[in-house]
Amino acid sequence: MHKFLNSEKLLESARLSIPLGSQTFSKSITQLPFGVSPYFAKSAKGSKLIDVDDNQYIDFISALAAVNIGYLDEDITKAVIEQVQKGSIFSLSSELEIALAQKLNEIIPCSEMVRFGKNGSDVTSAAIRIARAYTKKDLVVVCGYHGWQDWYISSTTRNKGIPKDICKLTKKFNYNDIDSLKKIFKENKDNIACVILEPMNIKYPENNFLEKVKEITHQNNALLIFDEMITGFRFGLGGASEYFEITPDLATFGKAMANGYPISAICGKKEYMRMFEEVFFSFTFGGELTSIAASLATIEKIQKFNIIEDFVKKGNKIINGLQDIIDCNGLRSYFAISGHPSWSFLTFKPNDIYSDYDIKTLFLQEAFQNGIMTLGTHNLMFAHNDQDIDNLLKIYQKLLPKIADIIKNKELDKYLKCQPLVPLFKVR
Predict the structure, then answer these.
(1) What's the half-sphere exposure (Cβ side, CA atoms, 13 Å) at 234?
(2) Are residues 206 and 147 in the same domain?
């Protein structure tokens, strides 16, 4: 019997009313190969997810890194229910907004004032608007992924529907390549409002890269913005800026700050954040209270249980275990492991015959079949236990040599039961 029959039936129905059948690209057929993937979840608790065909997975996607404590955590659920019983939104602001803003000011190095959003794109776009208003300059320099809004996505191949003049206002530089940033500043002189980057993704910063980015940015009277959408509440309680001891002018957070409830934040020095008294950034659900309650409960739990240290311990077990599998089986020509313990990446090395996405498609097919929910990353939750990690490594011990043999014998087409994935665009 087909393992994903109900998922595919629901997908067929969904595509009649929802483009791609999903509200999020990363949960759609663009990232989950059709014929070998689940598409719809029924429930989740702790580190486990059950799909609509009753297949159970150890979930290392963790709702695109938004869940960092665990699904249906009792303490966070209790805080949300208590707030729901009081009200989720009012005609006036709530003191809960002050409580969360003050808490973020305590733990985030650059934070002196805070505004909330609902998605990452809300606050990264707000940061760009503030930088442009403050510096009175228009150009933006980017490195990494920063959301769906025009100012960023115009710099990728997914730029349909965006006026050409807007596309000219965003420039890209490469991580750990400080000369690529210097070149942009040299060519655009005094026209750059800000530099925004993910402080880390696949690779660690090298040769004082972040320090040099900050120095060059400030030498040219531009603002430095850290997009901490994933690194926040994973690399450190105060994010990667705390972890690397580099304080930006503004920083944006979301995802794990509320264990999956929809909230984001832009934080920064008062000198810049007071621009919000002039710059328009306002929407009905900016002070929605169930997510604020969830965020306060999440932060409290991170502090109480030293969850950042827990991520490092578990994440290093994955990284070291996976590296051992790669080394002991002679697989360095096919796979690599990189990233921070809380957010590590299994990467696939292309060759003359197969692209990295061809190989990734086969990997996903086999991982889903073996009860691992992944997109090639390990987005840790506090709920992941030693048995989850051990099971992950056992499955990798079985899968990776098998996939390497298939590649070496040029038999991928024989084993692949679906069409290979095609990348949306390359950002990391």
Answers:
(1) 30
(2) yes
Closest CA to 304 of 420, 382, 384, 191: 382
What kind and span of H or E run contains 405? helix 386-408
Is 426 a residue whose pLDDT tops 80?
no
pLDDT for 1 beyond 60: no
Q: Name the residue range of residue 348's domain.
A: 5-60+307-415
- Check whether 359 has a pLDDT greater than 90: yes
Average pLDDT, the chain: 96
Nearest to 420 by CA among 352, 363, 351: 363
Buried b or exposed e, range 143-174, using 16+ CB within 10 angstroms: bbbbbebebbbbbbeebeeeeeeeeebbbbbe
Helix (H, G, I), strand (E, B) or coil at 402: helix
Determine, yes or no, domain membership for 45: yes
Among residues 304, 335, 369, the one where a domain terminates is 304
Displacement of CA 12 from its chain's centroid (Å): 28
pLDDT in tens, 292-325: 999 999 999 999 999 999 999 999 999 999 999 9
**What is the number of domains present in the chain?**
2
What's the whole-model pTM score?
A: 0.96
If we measure between CA atoms, which residue out of 176, 222, 164 comes closest to residue 203? 176
Q: Following CA atoms 335, 339, 342, 348 in sequence, which dihedral angle do they give, to the nearest 10 degrees?
A: -20
